Structure formats: structure tokens, C-alpha cells
Amino acid sequence: MRQAVKxxxxxxxxxxxxxxxxxxxxxxxSLPVVMGIGDAAGDYExxxxxxxxxxxKMRVKIVSEKDKTITKAVDKISENLETQVDLLHLKLxxxxxxxxxxxxxxxxxxxxxxxxxxxxxxxxxSDEELGSFFRNVQRSMKPTGTNLxxxxxxxxxxxxxxxxxxxxxxxxxxxxxxxxxxxxxxxxGKSTLIEHMGSGVIRNGKLxxxxxPDETLLFNTFTGQSGQGKIxxxxxxxxxxxxxxxxxxxGIIGGVPWMNVRMDITVNLLELRQGTTIxxxxxxxxxxxDRRFERMFxxxxxxxxxxxALGQHFRNLLPRDRLREWRDRDYPRLKVDFKTYVxxxxxxxxxxx
Amino acid sequence: MARSLHVLLxxxxxxxxxxxxxxxxxxxxxxxxxxxxxxxxxxxxHFAFLWIYMKGLSRGGGKDLTSLYLELGKVAAALxxxxxxxxxxxxxxxxxRSYSEIITIVFLSNTPLWAIMLLLFLIPAWMASLGIRTIFxxxxxxxxxxxxxxxxxFVSSFQNVDWRYVxxxxxKHYTFWNRISFYKSFFAYAGSFLFLGFVQPYFSYRxxxxxxxxxxxxxxxxxxxxxPLLTFGESTASTFFFPYVVTLDMIQINWLMFERITVFxxxxxxxxxxxxxxxxxxxSSQIVGRFWPKAKTNWIIGGLFVVxxxxxxxxxxxxxxxxxFIWNTWIRWYVLIxxxxxxxALGRRAERDAGGDRYAAGR
Amino acid sequence: MRCRDPPxxxxxxxxxxxxxxxxxxxxxxxxxxxxxxLKRKLGSDADWYCENxxxxxxxxxxxxxGSLIDVFETKESIRKYLTSAPGRERPENRxxxxxxxxxxxxxxxxxxxxxxxxxxxxxxxxxxxxxxxAKPLMRQIxxxxxxxxxxxxxxxxxxxxxxxxGIARQYLQSGNLRVEMKAIGAAHRIDVAVLxxxxxxxxxxLGKLNERLQEGxxxxxxxxxxxxxxxxxxxxxxxxxxxxxxxxxxxxxxxxKGRVVLFVDRMPYALVLPTQLWDLFALESDxxxxxxxxxxxxxxxxxxxxxxxxxxxxxxxxxAVNPEALRIQLALSVAQSREGVPYPALLExxxxxxIIELILEGSIRLPKSVGPTITMVGGIVLGQAVVTAKLVSxxxxxxxxxxxxxxxxxxxxxxxxxxxxxxxxTLLLAAVFGVLGIFAGFLLICAYxxxxxxxxVSYVQLRFAKDELPHG
Lengths: 353, 363, 472
Hints:
The complex is a heterotrimer. Chain A is an alpha/beta fold. Chain A contains eleven helices and 14 strands. Chain A is globular. Helices cover 72% and strands 0% of the residues of chain B. Chain B has 15 helices and no strands. The longest helix of chain B has 36 residues, at 318-353. Chain B is globular and about 60 Å long. By secondary structure, chain C is of the alpha+beta class. The radius of gyration of chain C is 30 Å and the shape is elongated. Chain B binds chain C through residues 2-7, 103, 107-108, 111, 115-116, 119, 123, 126-127, 130-131, 133-138, 140-142, 145, 201-205, 257-260, 263-264, 267-268, 270-271, 274-275, 363, and chain C through 277, 306, 321-322, 324-328, 330, 429, 432-440, 442-444, 446-447, 449-451, 458, 460, 462, 464-469, 471-472.
């Protein structure tokens, strides 16, 4: 009898307590997918794009609030919604360029500290005011709720011209001595959902410069994310990148760091203008890429931001205290010798001369 | 391997639970570069004393630790075992408190701490009351399901490493022996080799197998530190409390239907830690039981449960946990060094007394 | 005289034949009172058979229970026996070839109740026990009821213990097969047979088993619970230490592995001891498949067991406590499916589990004619109406259907009940603690299994690990 009482009491406690700790069921939570952070006279203006199941369809809701800290802003939003806001499923963080220029280290410290926000979320910068961006996007969006995210999803709408940077990579670059990142810049589009404007160069958490989509393609190629990017050559011909191999050699001569980079690129021919030979295409492509790299590198070197992570190759050549000042001391003096070798492999169905 | 299967599994499982949480942070804080040196140093230390301990036990003829000490007389044995007993109590308090804190931080921010601690302690206490054979067999069952999961996720944590962060390989000025965090890292070693001295009447094992297993988990020690270092770089990784856990959050596996596989990895480790806690609790109850033979085992375990749980409740914040950690470090020296040495000496004496007969009869 | 006996069964009954003495008056009086006693106790029963007859010129009275004896056939065979062997040398202590005698009223009643024919010799007052032609009350050896076997023999055990022993002997023709019979029970006795292969079975284990049977020889073993009590197993354990199987192939396979098989009279299955956790996944009939397929089947059963224990708990944990572990698309569709459900996930799951358990239990009780209708109604009610009425989410129905199917993949009818009840442990813990609760529940279940043992043989014994030392 005593045994039975003991079990009944235990069971009663267990059933009573399962609702006790504010565990909200999944349909009582809002799971925003995109968070926008804008600048409103020094405060943060936080936008949340929340997909909502209504009847058997999905609707998208945009809410926003302003406050000095992000958590308070999110809390205010949660206050006014009938469900609890959970940042667990955030996939995309959209930051206004003014915030980015001011400095992102506090923001990313917050993102990494808080367990809710997944460090795998993508970071994107917007030039346009976030209010109007979200309004435009909502008007033209399909009601599945994850469209904006699909733009950057590798197995959905991603293109190799778009840089892919996640929160943890930005955080790493804030603290790292030898690495910086490039973050895509978008604005809302007229006939498409959004328009890709190129990438922003982030140095130690601050937006310091921009590169255009073609240069971003080169950047992605360099870091191994070339996908199947398409390059336009000689005004009317184009090729598609198949495979890329980058060989790097680095060293220090007379206190000056140098690096020899050789990129072997295998492409497939797509469009060929009448009257152009294959050899011309190959030569022109190699020169095009070399020139593009030199221009881009000169620009980022002037900004002192090492987005190609070239400093990584000097980790075994420089002592740690010098590495600490890589960006200011040695990086501006770095000489890079960049050469591209092109092989055209696949001509498609039509012969070429 | 079949001859030491249970002991092997318990050894691996209890170490796994301890390695991946706090060990990386301590090692990363103890050196700026070339972290493999503190890792290997600590490991060599542990390996040497493990060998001494097991040799002493086998020469002592299959008797367990308490019996060996009791040969010196009850008072001497009590004095020698008292630090060990206190160490066990502290280890349990620290483990349960800190892992409950980790769980609160990582998953369940809404559940109160005492409830998690209760869960984390009640189950191991029940297992300890069922006996050592139950603990070992349950380890086998749990390991059969959870070890493949843990190893799979461990392998996929290499997804984002950049091997160049290994450089520089050597630090010019090593100061790790001056830093307290190096000594704190011994938590991962010292907690779980003493059980080898308590299980001899129940499960046999071969010394060689255990030593090879110890070498086998060395890569886990190495990579639990290096995976965060290689992914983030030292300057970033040193900003985290639990670097390995954060690294797991980065893993992207597109073909699984789960999002944060961190959860499953950590949960398996928590289960392993629960097995560890039950093992330590059982050892403590064995020590008490030898000095107080009249008491029933279940009552001893109940009493220890109350004491340890009360201890957990009085620790209020993470800082106090850290302080307990540091205090425990001193007792850990005793456990790590004095116990194996005394066991070795006693074992040799027993061997000489038995006339050179290596495997004394009786068990 | 023995007619149509099952082969090679030996009886050890009390009261062997004694030397033929002169009948004293006291003996004769005793015999008379024996007859009176019998008539008093059983004479008023409707199936009491008592007839005066003559055998070899001697007046005898034939006594027995007409519901157990085929009287006509018995008398025919007696006459045939007598006419076919005239004038043979009869040994002193026998009468007409009967060799057993009932001395006391208890022995006589016991013999009659077990279906024997008593031949009461009026002149000397002796009461001889004869094996008659029994009424065909036994079932034919048929196919198993609760176990299905795909390739492999389909004979099944029946209720009669002697037939079962005979079937076992047919499947295992070995001189080392030992059969020991005990009669257990005070008010009414039930035969229990212990079978083992000498040299394979563990003698310590057998010793403990026999000890228990001896101690508990007054227990009631007409149900398995009674047998469990007699054998001294803990009554509160949900792990069944007696694995019941209707298939002779399984029982004999267990015997060959060194286990002990019990037969209980009137129970149409063999009870195998000791049980192991691996029995949930490995069947003897798996060996009739090629080896890779056998491994695949066993892996499938293992996955089925894991799904049963973990899946409902996973649903509750991921929906209520830890939704960050789901992919966003899945999370959104789950949220959509739960739209409008008025109660928390745990209650929803428990409700639907209750309905499914009721259906499972009810489908056993239903007669074959009504069964399909109820199943259809249950399916429609559960499948369609309950979702449309927004009482539960449709994802949950899929999950619970998968759980029920996975549960049935486990070998052993009683084992599936064990696993079915264990899934509630993980479910409740998951509702409170989320994914941590699932793993903690799994640990609890593993620890529970690890703590079960049969006379010292653990439930989770690893045959290939040789590192365990017997208890000092």
C-alpha cells in the first residue's frame, strides 16, 4: 500500500510539473527567420521577419522596434505579439551599412555569447533603409517564409558571385590577426526579390570598402567556393568555371614578405563570339583575371584588410608578436605575384576553332 | 580485448564525458601557442602513474584498494583513504553542479537548476545502489548506442578547420607549468582511474589493454583542443568558455533532419558523465562500507546523496565552482601521485610476503 | 497393461508393487474402506464410472472418470490383451500384467483424477492402476497462434505436457537431453517438466532452479505469475524472465545453447530460462536465412526497439521543449500541424497513446467476425476525424503509427509488452527535460535492464566478453 502511494505521489508530481516551467509548445512560439538591424539615431532598430502558419498557408509578418540594446528591442516585440519570440531559427542577419561602418564587434560579441542565435546564420549588409527594404520584399515574396534565406542557400538560389559569410566567421575575423571577411551587400530589387550589389570588406568588424560582383567571384574562387561561376571574356564570349586549384608559396626576403600565387583554372566554354579563337579566349581570360586580382588586391591592401587570408601562410614564418600587427606592419608591404593558367576543357556540343 | 571489455568501455566512456567540456578551455588558457606540449605533458604524467597504479594492484593479488590499505591497519588506512574519499565527494559536487550549469546555458534556460541537478544525481544514485555490475553492464548498453553517435559527430567537427592555425608549432617561452589552468586540466585525468582499484573482485582486466586504450584516447584529448583552435585561431578560441561546444554549433550537415546536432553530442556526453558520477558514488560507498560494515549499502548511498546534493545546492555561482575546482586541485595531486605510489609499494610488499607468488589465490 | 502410451515417458509414482502377501482380514477391511472412500468422494459426480466386470474369470470392479476414459475402447483392449496372451507365466506381484497398485485412498484418487482406470479386485481387495485408452481431449499438433514463422517448421506445442516433451525429443534426438518431472501444487497438482542438455547447461544454475522448485512445491503454477512466484523471481519486474515460445525449433535451439526449458501442463508453450536482452532481437528461425540477411533482420529489430522507445519522446521534446533542434521548414510545418490543438504536446501524445493501447488490447478480445469492423472504425476515427476535429496533430498520428509498427518487430510476445511500457518512461522525462530527458530515460532503461538477472545470470550477459568474475 505504501508503495502504491509513493508511486502515485511521484507520478502526480511529474505530471503537474511538466507544465510548470514555462515550456511553450512550438505553435505558441514565433520563429523569425530574418533579423534586420538598422541604425535609428544611435539606437538599434530591430526588424524581425516571422513566418506564420495561417489556415494551411504560410504568411510572413514583419515587426520592428527600437531600443538601445538588441535584447530589449526583441523583448518589446515579444511583448506586443501573442506568441513568444524565439531567435533559435534565425538564418539571416541583415545589417545596415551605417551600423557596419560604425563597428560590429559589440554586435557580434552579443551574437556569439547568446546561445539562442545560431552562429551559422548568414550576415548580409544592406544599403537601403531597412524599413523600406522589408516592405518591398514582403510585397513580392512568395508565402513560404524562407525566401530571403533561399537567396543565399547553396542548394537553392546561391550564385558564386555572392559571398557567404556566417556570424562565426565575422566574429573570428574580429579577433584574428590575419583574417578578414567579405560580406554581401544587397538592396531590394525591382523585378526580382533582391538585388546583389557586390560585397563589403570588413576589417576587424568595420565596413571599410567594397568590391563588385566580379571581384567577389574571384574572391570566392580564391577561397575555394567557386561553384560554377561564369566569367565574361572579350566582350561577347563567356566561360564557366569547372575546377580551380590555387598554389601558394610564401616567404620573407630581407624583412619583406612576398607570396607567389598560381591559380590553375579549368573552364568550360559557353559562348564564343564569331571570329575569336580558343587561344585568344585563354590568353585574354588569364590576363583578365590577373589584372582583376591586382586591382582588387591593391584596393584591399590600401584598406589594410586581409580578406584573402594571406596572413595565414605567414604563421610559421613570423613570430607571434609580429603576427599580431600583421595588418598594419607587414601586410601593406606584402608583394604578391599572381598568375593564372587557363585550360579550356569542355566545348559543349559545337566544335570550336 | 574481450578479456577487458567492460573495464575498457568504462574507461573510455568516463573520460569522454570529462574531456570535451572543460579540458579545452583550460589547455587553451595555459599556453599561447604549441598547445600539444601541455597536452602531451599532462598525458605522459597520467600514463606513468596509471601504469604504476595498475602494476601495484596486480602485484597485490587482485585485492581492491581498501583491502590493500587495511593491511596497514585500520587507522592508517582511514588516514590514507580520507583524502580519496573527500576527493570523490568534491568531484561529484563539482561535476554535478558544473554540468547542470552547462545544461542550463546550452539548452534548458527555463528549467530551474535544482531540477536538473536532481535528475543528474538521482539516476546515478539509483544505479550506484544497484551495484557495480549493473553500472558496467549499463555502460556497455549505453556505449553501444551512443559511442557511434559521438564518434560520428566528432569526425564531422573537422568540417571547418583550417590546418594552418597549427602554426606556430612551438612556443618560445613555455609557461604552462606556472599557470593554474594547466593544473585544472588534470580534472579530466584524475577522476576516473581510481576505479581500477575497486573493480578487481568483480571484473578482470589486462594491464596492457588498459594502457593501449589510454593511448587510444590521446587523439581525443588532442583534438578536443585543436579542433576549436584550428577553426577559430587561438585569439578567438580563448574568448570562449566552452570552445569545443561552440565549434560544434558551426557544423552544417545538410542531409540530416536535425538542425543543431550539438544537442545530441552533448546529451550523449551527459549520459557518460552520469555513468561517471554513479561510479564515483559507488566507490565512495564502498570506502564507507568497509569502515562501517554494519550499515546497509542503500543507506550509505542515501546518506552520501543527501550530503552531496546539499553541497551542490550551496554553490551559488560559476565563480564558486571555479574556486572549488582550484581547491580540489591540491587533493588531486594526492590522488594522482600518492595513491599509485603507495599502492605500488604495498603491492610489492604483498608480493614479497606471498613468496614471489604473483597471482595470490583467493579470488 | 498399457494402451497407446506416448513413447518413452517414465513415471515415478509412489507405491510400487509389493510382495504378494496373504490377505489378512485387516487388509481386506482396508480395501473395502478404500472403495467406500472413493465412492463417497467421487461417486456423486456425473462422470463417475463404476462397473462390475469379469477378467480372466475373476470378478473385478472398474473405476474411473468417464469424462477422461474412453470406456468402450478400454474394455475392448483389455479383452484383446487377455485373449491374445492366454496362460502366460505371471510374475508373483502382478495381476494380469498391471504392475502398479494404489495403497491409500489419496493415491487412488490422484490416479483417478489423472485419468487412470482403477481395477478393484474383489477377492483380494487390491486396487490396481491401469493406463486406459484416453478420451481424445487433446488438440492436434497445430500451428502457432501468437508466433509467426516464415521459413522453418510450423508445428507448435500443445497443452499436454507429455506431447510437448515428445515433440521436444523429436526435435532434439540426443542422449544428453535430460527430462525431470516435478508435480507442484498443494490442493491440485500440476506437472512441471525441466529439460536441459547435460554438459551444456550450467549446473549451478540448475541447482538453484531445482532448489526453488523444491521449496515452492506447494505453489499454484496454473498461471505464469504463480510460476514466477514459485521460482522466486521478483514479482514487480516488468522484464519477463520466462521467455515463452510456441515453436519447438526455438525451444530446442535454446536447449542447445545451454539454457533450460520448462514445460507446465496445460500451458501450450515452452518456457525458456534464463532470458537475455539479445532474445528481443535474435530468433532461432533467423538462422534459416543467409547470413547477411540475418544480420539485416536483427539490425531491423534493434532499430524497431529504439524507435519505440525514443520516437514519441522525441516528438514531445522537439515540439515542447527544444524546437531549435529541428530544421526550420520542419519546425514550421510541425507548428502548422499543431495549429488549434488545445492542449500541450504531452497530453496530446498520452491521449493518443491511450487510444492506441486500447485498440491493441481490444483487438485481442474481439471475435474474428467483429474484429475487422472495429479496426476499420478505429482507423477512420483516428486517422481522419481526430485530425479534422483538431484534437491532435496529424504528425503525431504518423509518429504513433510508426511506433506501434516498430514495436511489433520485436521478437517475443511478452517482450513487446516490456518495450511498450518502457516508452512511457522516456516520454515523461522528455516532457519535463526535453532532449536531456530522452537520453536520461534511455540511461534509466539501460540501467534497469542491466540490473535484472535470473539466479545470477545477468539479463545483459555478454558471451564474448570473458572478463567477469563470479561473485566471491
